Amino acid sequence: MRFTVFGRAVHALGGSEAAVVLSGVSAVRLKLWVYALAGLFAGIAGVTYVARFGYGASTAGVGYELQVISAVVIGGTSLAGGDGTVLGSMLGAAVMGLLTNGLTLMNIPEEYNQFVVGLVIILAVLADRWRHRRARA
To answer: How many CB atoms sit inside 10 A of residue 106's CB?
Structure first.
C-alpha cells in the first residue's frame, strides 16, 4: 500500500476524502476501483469455498464480523480511518485465531468466547485512542 500510487491514494481516501479530491485524484473513480477489487476478491473467496466444501452457502460467513473487526483493530488499524497496514491486520488475524483456538481448546463456552473477543476489541480501541491522544500532545 505504501509503494504504489494506487495504494497511497486508497490509504489517503481512508483518512480524508477531501484531501484526495484536492490532490487531484477522483474519489469516485478510486472508490469504484476499491469496490471492484473487493468484489473480485470476494468472488475468489467464494470459488475457493465451493472448491473446498463442494457447495455454496449464503450463511457461510455469518458470525465472523466480530472476529474480523477485532483482528483489524488489534492489528493497529484505526476505526477513524487512514491508519493501518495489511501486515498489521494479518498479525491481528493471527492473534485472534490463536485466542479463539485457545479458548476452544480450553472448553470455554461460545458465549464467553464472544465476551473475550468483545473485551479484546474494547481494549484495542482504548489503546488506539490513547495512542492518538499521545501523538497529538
So the answer is: 9
